[in-house]
Amino acid sequence: MNSIELTQALIRCPSVTPVEGGAIMLLDKLLSEAGFDTRRVDRNGIANLYARFGTQSPVFAFNGHTDVVPVGDVDAWSHDPFGGDIVDGIIYGRGACDMKSGVAAFVSSALEFVKTPFEGSIVVLITGDEEGAGVDGTRALLDDVSARNEQIDHCIVGEPTCPNEMGEMIKIGRRGSLTAYLTAKGKQGHVAYPDRAQNPITRMIALLSALQNWKLDDGYTDFQPSNLEIVSVDVGNAANNVIPAEIKAMLNIRYNPSHTAKSLQMEINAMAKAHGVDVRYQASGDAFLTEQGDFTAMIADAVHAETGRMPIMSTTGGTSDARFVKDHCQVVECGLVGATMHGVDEQVKVEHIEQLTNIYSRILGQYFADK
Asked: pLDDT tens digits, residue range 334-352?
């Protein structure tokens, strides 16, 4: 099964988070039959797969996910979202670019590479929880790696990294993400008698104004400035003559290495306390940066050799499971064009999957040749 056929087979597995859908079972079978030692590292109903070929150092890892977001309106699709149809050199389906094709590319390159003797080990980490909470996916796999005192030296996450053209960008870092949930409580009453009530909206507006005017930083080396966005304000009041008893708001901060989740929480806590607002948090992972050097250059050279483009080394975009991998080893994201991810008629060019498979094969060959 080549990377194109494997992409189609994975798309045909309806693995909408947190459903496994048969995708991880398929990969487990392929890898184990090729001589990889595999083990399931499921946690709290999330399916995860660890596979390793070899027992020596160095250890090179690939990380990716087989879970996908819901398809939305099925009738809006021109092709079966779980069909994996190929039309005019394009594969259609949910997960076509994010990121079943990336998984297919690195699994196929690894399966081919291990047919020839080499010194070292290849590890494949596959989760079914990247599009969900992310608590029991790659984190569970890495917790298991730590518990067994195993080591990973370098890792590629196969997320789509190119905005428009194949080979134009790889990700050497990501900003952190922190969500704050704000609640202000008051006393409900009639708007004609404000002395008998306490309006919590006033305090919330004052806090949100202070947060909106908070200049986080001017940027950081290789990173854009951090930004805070208020994403929800909710009173739930349908009456025009009632002062509500409660107001809720939500904000998200995407931050560079100038901050940590802990440092941001301390600042927000002080402001929230001053305005009489309660706050709780969800931290998705701190910012990280893989310093440019031999590892990043090797990946860039492989991309250039296959696509003719020297990729930009970027830290833009949202978060990925690289935020967990970075605590174990150097990590870079290198993948396909992500223009249609999460959209209707998600798609990927067959040619791009073949290029990515070749890129990963070049990286493996160069990595173990250098060791």
From this structure: 999 999 999 999 999 999 9
Q: Is 112 a catalytic residue?
A: no
Among this protein's residues, is 354 annotated catalytic?
Answer: no
* pLDDT single digits (tens) 224-278: 999 999 999 999 999 999 999 999 999 999 999 999 999 999 999 999 999 999 9
- State pLDDT tens for residues 155-178: 999 999 999 999 999 999 999 999
The catalytic position among 20, 98, 129, 130 is: 130
Q: According to the 3-state scheme, what is the secondary structure of the chain?
A: CCHHHHHHHHHCCCCECCCCCCHHHHHHHHHHHCCCEEEECCECCECEEEEEECCCCCEEEEEEECCECCCCCHHHCCCCCCCCCEECCEEECCCCCCCHHHHHHHHHHHHHHCCCCCCCEEEEEEECCCCCCCCCCHHHHHHHHHHCCCCCCEEEECCCCECCCCCCEEECEECEEEEEEEEEECECEECCCHHHCECHHHHHHHHHHHHHCCCCCCCECCECCCEEEEEEEECCCCCCCEECCEEEEEEEEEECCCCCHHHHHHHHHHHHHHCCCEEEEEEEECCEECCCCHHHHHHHHHHHHHHCCCCEEECCCCCCCHHHHCCCCEEEECCCECCCCCCCCCEEEHHHHHHHHHHHHHHHHHHHHHC
> Reading across the β-sheet that carries 86-87, which strands appear in turn?
86-87, 90-92, 347-349
Active-site residue, from 28, 67, 136, 286: 67
Question: What is the rounded distance in angstroms from the CA atom of residue 176 to the CA atom of residue 283?
Answer: 8
